[in-house]
């Protein structure tokens, strides 16, 4: 998978010094005014990062991906805790074919937003596009663990399972959920085909055990 400067940005963010204010028996050596100034600077950086993220999203929506990427990187340099900035930067890198860097960005987003299925879904898409269907299936499953009704992940998971020719109780459950939620007739037809395949495979497994 291709690599790019997202890894450099990630390394720089992870290497940044962590400042911890102690409590309890240990008194801070900084004057109160200095601590207040530091907190104000953090808030200011956060506000600027959010503003840049908004600008980046507008540029991304208008198709100006180079400008959007520039703004996302600036935002994350100021504040690396904005999940949407990581996810959206990953989407741009994915579009450009930088799959490894996209996965790194999506992984940061997934860690920051543990109930959002989209970053895990996007990781799965990156793996599937780069030819790693088994890894894709794992991350589609992760996305569905966060939201069992997330339709893009249901479609992706069942498609990846079909590509692998694999069957399991989890996959059967995804097919059932997909048939309950899906409104597109072409996808419903595909799910029905996979239902018969998976059920036949599970029945063979039971007979052979």
Structure commentary:
The protein has helices at about 5-15, 30-60, 65-80, 85-95, 100-110, 115-130, 135-145, 150-165, 170-180, 185-209. The chain is elongated. It folds into two domains: about 1-10 and about 35-115, Alpha Horseshoe (Serine Threonine Protein Phosphatase 5, Tetratricopeptide repeat), CATH 1.25.40; about 115-209, Serine Threonine Protein Phosphatase 5, Tetratricopeptide repeat. Helix 3 runs antiparallel to helix 4 (about 85-95). It has about 210 residues and is mainly alpha-helical. Mean pLDDT is about 90; it is low at about 15-30.
Task: List the keywords.
mainly alpha, Serine Threonine Protein Phosphatase 5, Tetratricopeptide repeat, 0% strand
Shape: elongated
Protein structure class: mainly alpha
CATH class of the largest domain reads Mainly Alpha
End-to-end CA span: 40 Å
Individual helix count? 10
């Amino acid at each position: 998978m291709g690599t790019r400067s997202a890894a450099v940005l990630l390394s720089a963010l992870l290497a940044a010094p962590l400042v911890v204010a102690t409590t309890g028996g240990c008194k801070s050596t900084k004057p109160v005014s200095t601590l207040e100034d530091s907190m104000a600077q953090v808030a200011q950086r956060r506000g600027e990062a959010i503003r840049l993220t908004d600008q980046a999203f507008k540029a991304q929506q208008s198709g100006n991906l180079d400008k959007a990427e520039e703004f996302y990187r600036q935002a994350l340099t100021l504040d690396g805790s904005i999940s949407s900035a990581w996810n959206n930067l990953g989407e741009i890198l994915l579009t450009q074919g930088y799959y490894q860097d996209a996965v790194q960005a999506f992984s940061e987003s997934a860690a920051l937003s543990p109930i959002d299925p989209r970053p895990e879904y996007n990781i799965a898409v990156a793996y599937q596009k780069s030819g790693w269907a088994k890894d894709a299936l794992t991350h589609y499953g992760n996305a569905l663990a966060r939201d069992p009704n997330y339709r893009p992940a249901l479609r992706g998971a069942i498609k990846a399972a079909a590509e692998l020719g694999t069957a399991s109780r989890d996959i059967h459950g995804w097919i059932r959920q997909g048939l309950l939620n899906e409104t597109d007739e072409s996808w419903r037809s595909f799910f029905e085909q996979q239902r018969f395949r998976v059920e036949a495979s599970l029945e063979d497994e039971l007979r052979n055990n």
